Amino acid sequence: MSYHRRNFRLYSLGKETPTLKAKKHFGQHFLTSNETAQTIVNGLGDISTQDVLEIGPGMGIITQFMVTAARQFKAVEIDPEAATYLEEHFEKIELIKADFLKINIRDHYQDQFSLIGNFPYNISSQIVFKIIENTSLIERWVGMFQLEMGIRLVALPKHKKDYGILSVLVPFYYSVETIMTLPPSAFNPPPKVNSIVVKATRRNHEFRADPALIKHVVKTAFGQRRKTLSNSLSQIIPKEVFKTHPFSTLRPENLTHLEFEELCVFIAVNVIN
């Protein structure tokens, strides 16, 4: 399946009236279709054999399909009113009343688990970075994103405008595919943009270079994405060392994730050692 913009199809959904008011500062947009919520949960596969953590359950439209069906279910919710609502409507729910970005995941999980959620769009990239940091625990995840953000997760170098830091880093850790796209009318209140649901399954990539170095190089390169790598990475690779390398005259959007890894092997051999 091609993931470029023109190939996404939007689904029209029916609505249900929410009883919890969405709060803008939490980035809340409540999904309104049970059918869509079930499809999102199905993206995880058989949850009866999985421990599942949901980020930002809100009114529990996704939660309802997991709270008793998963082997173990927990949800992390930052909004006190939403937490109260969930406890009133789901007798067996186990809530972590906190900001997902601030919790230490290993305080709650020592073994493998799956992650799911209608991710707040204003922090969705930070959520993905945190998932990457905890790849050893998170086997798979399904998330709702702003369409533009979701496209970045599956973009290739040929999709220059959409290709960025997460486009390079995520494939080292997860295989990502789309489940569905949704119009603003699928939510209450409706966001100003279309949305996309993606699922990711962990890969067992054997790194040839230090993952921390790869992350540093990728972030530095895309921080000045209009420059050639010779210029943007001059503080990491001296130009005299880099000038004979075939990547030196390219921009970051021209390299695949494996080519970035190859570049970091070059750095490790010719600069660090």
The total domain count is: 2
Which secondary-structure class do the elements indicate?
alpha/beta
Q: What is the alpha-carbon Rg in Å? A: 20 Å
Topology as a string of helices (H) and strands (E) = EHEEHEEHEHHEEEHHHH
Distance between the termini: 42 Å
Q: What best-fitting shape do the alpha-carbon axes yield? A: elongated
CATH class of the largest domain: Alpha Beta
Number of helices: 9
How would you write the strand order of the largest sheet?
4-3-2-5-6-9-7
In total, how many beta strands? 9
The assigned CATH architecture of the largest domain is 3-Layer(aba) Sandwich
The chain-level mean pLDDT equals 90
What's the CATH H-level homologous superfamily of the largest domain? Vaccinia Virus protein VP39
CATH topology of the largest domain: Rossmann fold
Stretches where pLDDT falls below 50 for ≥5 residues?
Answer: 1-18
Question: What oligomeric state best describes the polypeptide chains here?
Answer: single chain
Query: Strand fraction band?
Result: 15-25%
Give the helix proportion (percent range).
25-40%
Could you give a short account of the major beta sheet?
A: 7 strands, mixed
Lay out the secondary structure.
Elements lengths: L29 E2 L2 H9 L8 E5 L16 E5 L3 H10 L5 E2 L16 E6 L5 H10 L4 E9 H8 L10 H9 E9 L4 E2 L6 E8 L8 H13 L5 H4 L6 H4 L14 H16 L1
Parallel strand pairs: 2-3, 2-5, 3-4, 5-6
Antiparallel strand pairs: 1-8, 6-9, 7-9
